[in-house]
Amino acid sequence: MVMVARPAVSKTNLLTLLAALLLASPLAAQQVGDLDGPLQLQIVGPGLSRMPLAVPTLKRLGGTESEAAADYVSLLSRDLEMSGLFRVIDSAAYIDDPQTSGIRLEEINFDNWLTVGARGLVRGTYEVDSTGLTVEVRFFDVPGRSMIGGRKFSATGTDFARMAHRTADAVMEFVTGRLGPFDSRIAFVSDRGGHTRDVFVFSFDGRVQRLTRHGSVVMAPSWHPDATSLVFTSFKERRPSLYRVDLPTGEQTRLASKLGLNIGGTWSPDGKLLAVAREVAGNTDVYAIDFAKGKQWKLSEHWGIDVDPAWSNDGKRLAFCSSRSGRPQVYVMDISERRPERLTFEGTYNCSPTWSPDGTTIAYTGRTDGRFQIFTIPATGGGRRQLTFEGSNEDPTWSPDSRFIAFSSRRGGRKKLFLVDADGRWERQLTDGEGDDTSPSWSRRLD
Prior knowledge:
By secondary structure, this protein is mostly beta strands. The chain folds into two domains: 11-176, TolB, N-terminal domain (Rossmann fold), CATH 3.40.50; 185-442, 6 Propeller (Neuraminidase), CATH 2.120.10.30. Helices cover 12% and strands 42% of the residues. The protein is built from four helices and 32 strands. The chain has helices spanning 11-24, 67-82, 110-115, 160-176, and strands at 29-32, 41-44, 51-54, 59-62, 86-88, 120-129, 132-141, 146-155, 185-190, 198-203, 208-210, 218-223, 229-234, 241-246, 252-256, 261-267, 274-280, 283-290, 295-298, 306-311, 317-322, 329-334, 341-342, 350-355, 361-368, 371-378, 385-386, 392-398, 404-410, 415-421, 427-429, 437-442. The strands form eight sheets. Strands 3, 4, 5, 6, 7 and 8 form a six-stranded mixed β-sheet that branches. The protein has a four-stranded antiparallel β-sheet with strand order 11-10-9-32, with no helix packed on it. Strands 12-13-14-15 form a four-stranded antiparallel β-sheet, with no helix packed on it. Strand 30 (415-421) and strand 31 (427-429) form a beta hairpin. The radius of gyration is 23 Å and the shape is elongated.
């Protein structure tokens, strides 16, 4: 897959777009980058109004017509809507014919797009040949009458879905200065299709892939930093053992089964160490395992139960859940010093911490009014923010851009995966169907 960027924006066009956004919605705060460089616009605050965006069908340049090209536009629109930043305008309102109009700046009739209320325009072409599908798209600031940037992709088979996800990520970067999260996957545990629990993977085109068939109970999947493999706990051999599954090949390897019971595991950001909760002689602590060197050692040591380890983005700190204060609370410690400090003080049951990729925030599960909800707290400590209020919600996991949190929720029926933005302004349901979907783990961006 080939990706080419063509950012281009002038000071005048940037100010025009900023003015258009200000008129479109009352935003609490906006930050603009270098006025002489690419557009960098951060949209935050409650009451956010979404940017009206036009995403017409792709113009065919050569070769046969392709259903993949239509699916590409559909998936792209779906991702942009899911981001919470954009409102894709119904194509029935479009005036321009995408098959006769051009995609170069001088060929765009901005008045036609202003007429339908568009503030942004995603315009593209596709071509089919013996090697596959090639798509080129450009993003335009409609009020500023300028091109902000572009991408070009080539793919075969079903890779058109990844092209759509990467395009959506790029559009988010053009507008906010940060890549979006959609070229990634979410692993989870489910009993869909049977009575036992196995590991599945969700992609943002809606596909769900089954990875394991252990005929038992599996739990706590966690991605390797390269996003090509997962570590998880399985009771396949009637005791919890750690396994690793390689996604490209499907090969599964048992990693650890000795020295007590192994529950869950999470890789350090460099992929060299695995932090795992291990029960030895009736006491559970957090251990580090270095498989390359064949070494393992305790990271925490206390008579209380220490579980749910989560690495910081720099690999220097670890968050975990501990009962050392009498009830489960979230603690943070420097790996080199190993002196845990309590992070959560509100609520009597707080667990399942997960560190945002930008290192600033920790999300966790907390009990309030008899139900579990998703909260966030600054990694340095402070007041908590409640993100969910409906149903019972558990197991938060961050998107690679630190914008969103996926979690498992029961709302009157089966447990399903949901998405919430980091400010708690909106939610989306991700999975459906039979079975309970739990323990989500969000990968980094794919290569």
